[in-house]
UniProtKB/TrEMBL annotation:
PROSITE patterns associated with the record: HTH_ICLR, ICLR_ED
Keyword terms of this UniProt record: DNA-binding, Transcription, Transcription regulation
UniProt cross-references to Gene3D superfamilies, sorted A to Z: 3.30.450.40, Winged helix-like DNA-binding domain superfamily/Winged helix DNA-binding domain
Residue stretches making up the HTH iclR-type domain: 15-77
Organism from which the protein derives: Streptomyces plumbiresistens
Protein name: IclR family transcriptional regulator
Positions of the IclR-ED domain: 78-258
Entries under Pfam families matching the protein: HTH_IclR, IclR_C
Keyword hit for Transcription: yes
PANTHER family per record: HELIX-TURN-HELIX TRANSCRIPTIONAL REGULATOR, ICLR FAMILY, TRANSCRIPTIONAL REGULATORY PROTEIN
Length: 260
C-alpha cells in the first residue's frame, strides 16, 4: 500500500467516524427528548458499547450530556449554542426565494414571496413565469390583507395584535361584507387547508394560490404564492399547482428548521 493510499484510507476512516457520531446525534434529535443508552443504540442501529464510546467523546466536547440522576442522555450546552447560532445565521428570505424559483421552474407560472411589514404583506421577490400576465408587480409593493391570497395567509397565521391595525383600515366601509363571523371562518379555513386561492382578488382575470413558510427561529411566517391567468386555472390544473406549492413550502420550512 502506498503512502497516498494509506492517507486516503485514514481520511475515509476519519469521515466514517464523524458519520457514526452523527447517527448518535440524529438518534437524540428524532427521540424528541432525553434517551437511555439502549434507546439511542436501537435508534442509531449500533451496539450499546459502541454508542457509549461515542457518547463519552461527544460529552467531552459538550455536544451531549448525561443526567446524573436518571442516566439519560440529551444534547449538551455546546450543541444548543451551535443550533442557536446556526438558526441566527439562516437567511429565511434567501432560502424561501430559492425554493420559490424552483416552483416557478416546475409550474411555469409567476411566483412571489412576501414578508410581513408595518403596513401589511410586502413583496420581497417576484419571479416571472412563461405565461404572460396582465400586471407588473414591483418588489416592495404592499398587498391587501382581505383580497389577496398572500394577505389571507398572514391574516390566518399572525397574531391578531399584529394585523388589527392594517385590518381595521381595510375594513372601513366593508364591515357589512366582512363580518367578524366571516373573518373567523376565513382564518379557520386557511389554517385547515394550508393554502388560499383567490380569483380576481387584486387584479381581474388573475388567480393566486398562496401558502405559508415557517422558520424555527422566527414567529412570523413568509408567504409564497403562484399567480396564473384565470383562463388556465381549470380545477385539474389548479389542484396540480396547489400540490406543487404545498411541496415547496414544506421543503422550505424543513430547511429552515421548522418541525410541523
Amino acid at each position: 500500500m502506498t503512502e497516498t493510499d494509506s492517507r486516503e484510507n485514514g481520511e475515509r476512516q476519519g469521515i466514517q467516524s464523524v458519520e457514526m457520531a452523527m447517527r448518535v446525534l440524529l438518534a437524540l434529535e428524532t427521540g424528541g427528548g432525553a434517551l437511555s443508552l439502549s434507546a439511542i443504540a436501537q435508534a442509531s442501529g449500533m451496539q450499546p458499547s459502541k454508542v457509549h464510546r461515542y457518547l463519552v467523546s461527544l460529552g467531552r466536547i459538550g455536544l451531549t450530556s448525561q443526567d446524573p440522576a436518571s442516566g439519560l442522555y440529551d444534547f449538551g450546552a455546546a450543541m444548543r449554542r451551535m443550533g442557536a447560532e446556526s438558526l441566527r445565521r439562516t437567511n429565511e428570505v434567501a432560502v424561501a426565494s430559492g425554493h420559490a424559483m424552483q416552483l416557478r421552474d416546475r409550474t411555469g407560472h409567476s411566483v412571489n414571496l412576501a414578508v410581513w411589514g408595518d403596513r401589511g404583506p410586502i413583496v420581497v421577490s417576484w419571479a416571472y413565469g412563461t405565461r404572460p400576465l396582465p400586471l407588473t408587480v414591483r418588489v416592495g409593493a404592499t398587498l391587501p390583507l382581505l383580497t389577496s391570497s398572500v394577505g389571507q395567509v398572514f391574516l390566518a397565521h399572525l397574531p391578531e395584535s399584529l394585523t388589527d391595525e392594517v385590518l381595521g383600515g381595510e375594513l372601513r366601509g366593508k364591515e357589512a361584507e366582512w363580518t367578524s363571523e366571516r373573518l373567523a371562518a376565513t382564518r379557520a379555513q386557511v389554517r385547515e387547508e394550508g393554502h388560499v386561492v383567490t380569483h380576481s382578488g387584486v387584479i381581474p382575470g388573475i388567480v393566486s394560490v398562496a401558502a405559508p413558510v415557517f422558520a424555527a427561529n422566527d414567529p412570523l411566517p413568509l408567504a409564497v404564492s403562484v399567480v396564473l391567468p384565470e383562463s388556465l386555472a381549470t380545477a385539474e390544473h389548479l389542484a396540480e399547482v396547489t400540490g406543487e406549492l404545498h411541496d415547496t413550502v414544506a421543503a422550505a420550512s424543513h430547511e429552515l428548521g421548522y418541525l410541523s
